[in-house]
Specification:
The protein has 172 residues and is an alpha/beta fold. It is 36% helix and 22% strand.
């Protein structure tokens, strides 16, 4: 059976609301957090082949900074889809978006709390150690990485195994 890798990520630190929530931007700290996540993924892996990203400004900016840290333009850029349905999404909406992916074996999903942390927790169910780590939720710029057995359409706690869960990297 084919093994896949899933990275779930919450957007980096955003500023306060000065209008529509969808239009909130990252703080300077948030931009740096996201870039450092990209650097960490470049050194530890995995490198995403496809990115499903909320259309919200803070998620778009998070992806741009992660991509810069990854050096994504230098080594080949992943396919990126900005999706309105990932803004304020539920775990089931996120899972539906993931299930539609057919080709790529390494997928990054960049979205918002509470949906992204709830999906991470659901995928870690049944493993006490993982549940303890994931129950805390996701601070901004947190990632959870999973190995997934089989196609994306069968993603569940039974097919996913948490390999790491990390908050934003500390300043270098």
């Amino acid at each position: 059976m084919e093994r896949r890798q899933l990275i779930l990520m919450r957007h980096a630190t955003a500023g306060g609301s000065r209008g529509r929530d969808h239009d909130r931007t990252l703080t300077l700290r948030g931009l740096d957090e996201a870039r450092r996540v990209g650097v960490r993924l470049r050194s530890k892996g995995p490198f995403p082949e496809r990115v499903l990203c909320s259309s919200a400004t803070r998620c778009r900016e998070t992806w741009q900074a992660v991509a810069a840290g990854l050096g994504a333009t230098a080594v080949g850029a992943p396919i990126v889809e900005f999706q309105d349905r990932l803004y304020g999404s539920t775990p089931s909406t996120l899972a539906d978006a993931i299930a539609e992916v057919t080709e790529e074996r390494v997928l990054l999903v960049l979205a918002h709390n509470p949906g992204i942390s709830q999906l991470a927790f659901e995928l870690g169910r049944g493993h006490a150690e993982n549940e303890v780590r994931l129950r805390k939720g996701f601070v901004p710029a947190t990632i959870a990485c999973y190995e997934v057995e089989g196609p994306w359409s069968l993603l569940s706690a039974a097919t996913a195994r948490l390999t790491r869960c990390e908050g934003p990297p500390s300043e270098a």
